[in-house]
């Protein structure tokens, strides 16, 4: 397979990965574009949803380009005319690149009255340093704004320090026993030192941190979550405490952290997690969701939603567990 094939959406199949959405075999952009144009003219939402939820992100990007060449129009503009509400936001999200999508989620979390600190924490906690670099670049391109400056303006105090440290996180090496000793001693201090936790949790590689936190729980004879809750409970703002706990949950078990995030089935949060993780680790999140709730994500979506929105979400989820 040559590079021209890949640029046209003919990707190697993702067998063996943990994404639920994989490249559509025998993908033909011209055929899809013709079907999409007919569907947009007839307002055939079912066909639009069926095609766009059954293509990988790279294939959708090639459809955007092919549609523009074929019709001299933007595909997004046509979708906005035919779709509405939650279904529109879901499909338009699928049409973005992964880094554009996360950039838009961050911007929305900071717009208007109030800031959604949990969305910001989720994205920054779950993304790798390279992904965060790509998201930062996409944010600048999409909004002509500086992500770090916007985050600083929307947060304050130690929580702000945590958020910026996460944005610039590193996967460095360190000695497990030394980090274990440092965190254990910090928990004994009457005055919490947030900077100690921020420094260690944002500058070490994930496997190292899992080992440190596991050993710390054995030493404490309680979960790190419980320790942080008690240690930082005196703070006037709960944002730092929540942020640190989210980071710990993510380090210990990212799929479970995300599965618990979407249990309430709030559509904006649900769509954000499902779209951003559809080609990465949604299969793991599905398994964690079943463990956490006793119900499969697929069944939960069937019960919660109806019509084309349900069709789209089920297509992304892919299967019953």
TrEMBL record:
- Return the PROSITE patterns for the record: ANNEXIN_1 (PS00223), ANNEXIN_2 (PS51897)
Task: Name a GO CC annotation attached to this entry.
Answer: vesicle membrane
Question: Molecular function (GO) terms listed?
Answer: calcium ion binding; calcium-dependent phospholipid binding; phosphatidylserine binding
Keywords carried by this UniProt record: Annexin, Calcium, Calcium/phospholipid-binding, Repeat
Note whether Repeat occurs among the keywords. yes
Listed InterPro entries: Annexin, Annexin_repeat, Annexin_repeat_CS, Annexin_sf
Question: What Gene3D superfamilies does the record point to?
Answer: Annexin (1.10.220.10)
Looking at the Swiss-Prot or TrEMBL record, what is one Pfam family this protein matches? Annexin
Q: Does the keyword DNA damage apply?
A: no
Q: Which family does it belong to?
A: Belongs to the annexin family.
What is stated about domains? A pair of annexin repeats may form one binding site for calcium and phospholipid.
User: What name does UniProt use for this protein?
Assistant: Annexin
Organism in which the protein naturally occurs = Triplophysa tibetana
For this protein's source organism, the top of the classification is: Eukaryota, Metazoa, Chordata, Craniata, Vertebrata
